[in-house]
Amino acid sequence: MTPDPALDPSAAVQLDAEPRLLALVRELAHHAQPEPAARLPVALGSRLERDLGLDSLARVELGLRVEREFDVRLPENLAAEAETPADLLRALRAAQPGKRSEPVSFVTQRSDVPEALPVAGRPDDARTLLDVLDWHVARHADRVHATFLASDDEAQTLTYGELRGRARLVAFGLQRAGIAPREAVAIMLPSGLDFFATYCGILMAGGVPVPIYPPFRMSTIEDHLRRQAGILANCLATALVTVPEAKLLARLLRADVPSLRQVVTVRELERDAAEPAPFAARPGDIAFLQYTSGSTGNPKGVILTHANLLANLRAMGRAAGVGSDDVFVSWLPLYHDMGLIGAWMGSLYFAMHLVLMSPLAFLSRPSRWLHAIHAWRGTVSAAPNFAFELLASRVDARDLAGLDLSSWRWAFNGAEGVSADTLVRFAERFHPMGFDPRSIAPVYGLAECALDLAFPPSRRGALVDHVDRERLMATGRAVAVAPGDPRAVKIVACGRALEGCAIRIADREGRSLADRVEGRVEFKGPSATQGYYRNPEATAALKDGEWLDSGDLGYLAAGELFITGRAKDMIIRGGHNIYPYELEEAVGKLPGIRNGCVAVFGVVSPGAVTERLVVLAETREEAPARCDALRAAINNLAVDLIGGPADEIVLAPPHAVLKTSSGKIRRAATRDSYQRGLVGRKGRAAWLQLARLAGAGVLARGRHAFIAAGRMAYGAWFWTVFGAVAVLALMSAFGLPEVRQRRAASRRLSRALAKLAGVPIELEGAGNLPAGPFALVANHVSFADVFVLLASVPRDLTFVAKSEYARHWFVGPVLERVGTRFVERFEAGRSVADARELCAAVRAGESLAFFPEGTFRREPGVLSFRTGAFAAAVTARVPVVPVTLVGARTLLPEGQWIPTPTAVRVVIDAPLMPEGEGWKAAVKLRNAARAVIIARSQEPDAAGELAPVFAAR
Prior knowledge:
Elements: H1 11-32, H2 34-37, H3 56-70, H4 78-81, H5 85-94, H6 129-140, E1 144-151, E2 154-159, H7 160-176, E3 184-188, H8 193-204, E4 208-211, H9 221-235, E5 239-242, H10 247-251, E6 262-264, H11 266-269, E7 286-291, E8 301-305, H12 306-320, E9 327-330, H13 337-350, E10 353-357, H14 359-364, H15 367-376, E11 380-383, H16 385-393, E12 410-413, H17 420-430, E13 440-442, E14 444-445, E15 452-455, E16 464-468, H18 469-475, E17 488-492, E18 496-497, E19 502-506, E20 519-524, H19 536-542, E21 543-544, E22 547-557, E23 560-566, E24 571-573, E25 576-578, H20 580-588, E26 593-603, E27 612-619, H21 624-642, E28 648-652, H22 667-675, H23 686-735, H24 739-756, E29 761-764, E30 775-778, H25 785-792, E31 798-802, H26 803-806, H27 811-817, E32 821-823, H28 828-843, E33 848-850, H29 868-876, E34 880-886, H30 888-891, E35 904-908, H31 918-937, H32 947-952
Parallel strand pairs: 1-10, 3-4, 3-5, 5-6, 9-10, 9-11, 11-12, 12-13, 27-28, 29-35, 30-33, 30-34, 31-32, 31-33
Antiparallel strand pairs: 1-2, 7-8, 14-15, 15-18, 16-17, 19-20, 20-22, 21-22, 22-23, 24-25, 26-27, 34-35
Helix pairs in contact: 1-3, 1-5, 7-8, 12-13, 16-17, 20-21, 23-24, 24-25, 28-29, 29-31
């Protein structure tokens, strides 16, 4: 029976929904690609991306048009999950007409949350993020910390006390599952209150949080899972916390991630109400690893410690002047540093009320962001440039009715390039709704500096520099021109360096450049990362002496930072620096080219003296004449904008230009695809992707089994050789008459062990050893450290060990026979006597070898140094020689008795002479030696002792 539209308001939708919907899709496709759209077939089964060329932002606009046309509200996740018009039609028929015309209310508004009094003081003495949480719980446990807008009609709140309570349950659940301290635990959760409880719970359990983004569509599952597998394998994740729907898929990761033992949900972790075993976090502990969304074959996980984060949060807070009376409204994903650090951690530290919504809620209807600011009287909010552009030019005026944005005093624009035109359009459109253009704050930051590095003055608004494009490209000088000059390119200022941080512009040789001269943006400060987790090559490339290389290009003018592009994306051709952005934008506007789907990159060909410029543009054009016209138009643009033609123009089908999850162009990956001849290949079906993953898992398990067998065989050989050498060492220790003979035999046997076991030991800086007696201090990283020093250091050494070894029935007599000296750590009187004996030994001509950490652990990091060795050196007036062991931790780490064959490097640095007398001189000597060893080892400062020293410089 046909429904009667007069009786059923939804009947009109049911009767003609399909043709009207297809007409909307066809209209949008025609708008995006005017000329080929007329030939483009649009059917219910057409794929929005692959067949119709509608990217993520185009699908957002399609959702907005459908809602306006049919007066409905579509589900929030539809923009991300819909793959065909048929998916839209099903959602349309399930929706209720008339809902879209209702104003966005967020019915649980600030008035429904108990009004909180301003907080007195701040947790400025906190040393870790957990200290920050404890500080707030002790003073106002019932204060609302965060409100999550689960829908337009539902708001969920979380107090500080509830956050700590839930985090304790998660911590106990992780410990129950066998998670050990300092093991990585990945979080693959959507935005919501569960994320906060999980993150804090991981820290309480002693783990290292690793946020990764959840999958959105089955059609991209292979790329998604492979990318996550690379990240999880790099961080050696032992557990993954995710939603129930993703558990089955996440288990596929185990084949490629041998360390992954647990895939659990938050509810499973919270099921038992019990107190976790206490874990004392330290400032130098890793607070989380930030991986970029584009990480694939060589993931780069930025190490961020508690000290890094707190330094950055405090500096940002001072620059912005935020406090407990502020409200931070955010839709930013929590796996991204701007959402995680800026929105959540900033709110946590300064007691701002965080009002959070899902990124999908924003994408399905962008006006929700502004309505949330209006409803909750938001004072602080942030987003990448594309979000401001979306609201400035794509959202219907009816969706903005009734907005009052007068409360918004910080509108941060960062995380991608900032467009001056976007800022102008946004300010002009929303100024009548109370938005103050002075609230716009372009900022610059990067994960390697925790979050922010440069910050504009309060209420300054956007500052735009107009520079001569040609002179910038030809000479690297930012010469100012009039705003109306046809040569002008607009570059937005990002502010000055945050307090405690420093920015410089450097050339390729590491020399600082003058104002208005373009170069590499480098930085340093207390929030700067120590490097990339388990990626020494990338860490080495990051560092330029005491400075870190941001990978960006820019210039300074009157202390303000102006970003001009990415160094790795820059193309050098014929001595000219060519930047891809402007050409990509111009080509994307050509009729027939997919806007936002153009990549410009350089390719070095064999025998070429300069890079070749390649323009790769997506199009659906196939007619030869039309393609020739497009190539001519692109070439004309290249001549106009960069002063010369492109070397190659490639017209490719949709999805040839690769992008990150957030829509940024992956130029390096696209260049690699081009060079490998993969441009334009069609994607595989989801079932085939899963089959390939399963097959890869079988191969991976076989490969891991083979590797494990090889390790076992090597371990058996190593311990066989070790046993034979140990027997000879015992014979020499008890058979040779003099201590010097016994020590010489130990050194020869250690070198033999290294050679027979296949452990190459490289010695650097042997010439730094003094002629007379000295105190050698080395980092302690493994069970093999003594053997490594004996095999490498060409001097007679007296090792100093803790007195517990002297009391061992077997080890004690052996160590005594080779002249080991023992020190008491716990009995004060005996410790003083031992120290006097050490001083006498040095004065008598012995060179002492210390491991001042006293112990070691599996995780990278230099522990605190005991002062005894340095006090002895000061008293005896002998130099201290810092020695750094690199690689021994991998050879035989704590808790592992099967060695891993690896090269070991021993670096002997220049001796440090005592300055002054007494305890202060010993402490100064200790700090200097420890700083040298930390720098050489490229390992974290696990005690956080150097942070105050660095900050004070």
